[in-house]
Amino acid sequence: MGCNASKGPPAGETKADLQPQTSMQRQESPPPPPKPAEKLDAQQIKALKHKQRKLLEESGFPRGVVVETRHPYEARRFSWKQSVPMEGTTGLGVYFCNQCCTYDEGAMLRIYAGGLQRSASGPGARVEVAVTSGGSVYGTVLERDKSCWLVQLDQQRSVSPNAHALEEENGPKEGDRVEARQSSGIWYPATVTDVILEADWYAATRTPSFYVVDWDDGAQEEQEMKPYELRRPTINGTNKSNGYTFDALPRSVPRYSANPNDGQGCYALCVEEPKSIWVEYADMIGEEISSFCLDTSFVLTPIKIEAFQGPGPAQRAGVQQGWFLDLAGMEKEMSQHCQGVMDSLDGIGGIRATWPTAPCEVSKLLDACFNNLPDLLRNLNEQLLCKSGVKLLFSNSSSEKPVKLLPEAAAFY
Questions:
Q1: 3-state class of 169 per DSSP?
Q2: CA dihedral over 312, 316, 321, 326, signed as positive or negative
Q3: How far apart are CA 365 and CA 377, in angstroms?
Q4: End-to-end CA distance of the chain
Q5: By C-alpha distance, which of 411, 412, 413, 408 is closest to 127?
Q6: Is 222 helix (H, G, I), strand (E, B) or coil?
Q7: 3-state DSSP assignment of residue 311
Q8: pLDDT tens digits for range 7-50
Q9: Mean pLDDT over all residues of the chain?
């Protein structure tokens, strides 16, 4: 990327004037080759630096620094890095000159900051989001106000549902890692322990008839799988960029499927002071809560309180309209104290809710709920709201912890 960039104190402010050309424009009228940069002697460079400093001071950036990448650069893979010391600053603004341009829209500018101040962080900041069901995921801040962060979660998997299908002629072998589909339709990680071959006497060949698998969670049922019930792992351990993508979460495969939010962006709404409140309902839940609503873009916490019907224990405890129903946070309690909730979720995705329920069965029931969100919403509004003697967990945040700032910022062009 060839550009001149001046950096100064204004916090949370980034402006860019890039001029990428579309692929159609490049085909019809390819840009002329860049002209070689003129060589400046030592005196000219000194005079230029003096003018730049004077202009920065007149523009209100007395501590600004002009940074210039190598340009023109060759039309091939190219990277550039420069350290810019700016001691004592509390914020950073990046301004591009009007001649800044790239060969295409694939360029990326990444800014690494030595010191992190939450008050100065805004759109483009990189953060780590803790996930209630385990693990954490990196993301990029899209919007931020005083108390709330809207974060787009990093993803790595393909949006194609067939991207990880197995070819019949090159199926898995004993010891291979796979994902296998149970009768509920949900994919779970497993390891192939045996391949049962079937003889084709006419073609004089042996082909796999079914595979025996060991489930990662130790389950003993449904261990014989047909070839079409297996697929490659959606995340290959050798391909993880940092282990903190949404796809690498401990329960990402079964809980959020191969195509979370139908291949669209996945987001988390995180607040500076996250609150989780348990509410016990002696009377019918529907006397206070009018309805729940669904927002599939918030994949970690897709169910919210849509409206209240009247006063009740949740509002007295501080719960507000728009708070999330934290199903993942209720997981550990469901097997012992949430029979009413389990009854309301019974049958979603073909999973039956027995009582008392083992923790692993609760996890599978929640997996089915997250894979069948419209059914989940229907059951909550038609069945859960009619329950009494139920304990629910509400949260004002998609994460139980404040976001953790990472020492970098990202801008994509």
A1: helix
A2: negative
A3: 14
A4: 10
A5: 408
A6: coil
A7: coil
A8: 444 443 333 333 333 333 334 455 555 555 567 788 888 888 88
A9: 80
> In which band, very low, low, confident or very high, does the pLDDT at 358 lie, cut at 50, 70 and 90?
confident
How far is 104 from 413, CA to CA, in rounded Å? 8
**What CA–CA distance (Å, rounded) separates 5 from 95?**
6
Q: Give the separation between CA 248 and CA 237, rounded to whole angstroms.
A: 9
Report d(CA 133, CA 66) in Å as an integer. 46
Residue with the two structure tokens 């692993």? 360
Q: Are the CB atoms for 92 and 102 separated by under 8 Å?
A: no
CA-to-CA dists, residue 413 to 110, 154, 200, angstroms: 11, 17, 55
Kindly provide the b/e burial profile for residues 102-138, where b requires at least 16 CB atoms within 10 angstroms of the residue's own CB.
bbeeebebebebeeeeeebbbbbbbbbbbbbbebbbb
Angle value at C-alpha 411, between 406 and 413, nearest 5 degrees: 155
Residue 165: what pLDDT? Answer: 60
Q: Is this model's pTM higher than 0.90 or not?
A: no
Residue recorded with tokens 């909550």: 380
pLDDT tens string 262-314: 778 899 999 999 999 999 999 999 999 999 999 999 999 999 999 999 999 99
